[in-house]
Amino acid sequence: SSKIRNMEVQSADGVAVLEDCIGFSLTKAISRIEEKLRKGGLPDCPDDDIIPSVGNEIGVEAQIRFLKAKLRVTQEDLANVVFECRKKDDENQNLETRLKDTEEEKARLQHTISMQQSQTEKYKVLSQEANRKNEGLQQEVIALEKVLQ
Question: What is the domain extent for residue 133?
């Protein structure tokens, strides 16, 4: 049973475990706390909502079990929050990668657009020159037709 109790205490990760201290006796510590409670040596905290008001009516062992259960629930909540934070971090990382890719694609597309705009301007100039030549040639054809008639 001492192994089971030790494993139970060890399951509280990240919490100072008193059983690890050399010369510590849980029974002595509980006895001291009970003695202080009997003498009224421990201050009452009306704002303390860790142990409900029925906490005064239950024994120290029950209070310890209650606090251990509350610790486990708090650790589970913490684990859930850590999990959610990691999940959000992963999501942020993915979004940052997507944003970087999108920005690179935007830069590439802007370069393509500017090249196409310059080519469009070039072809407009060539088209205008071709239209002027065409008009000049049509004028020449009209003049030659008049000469032939």
Answer: 63-148
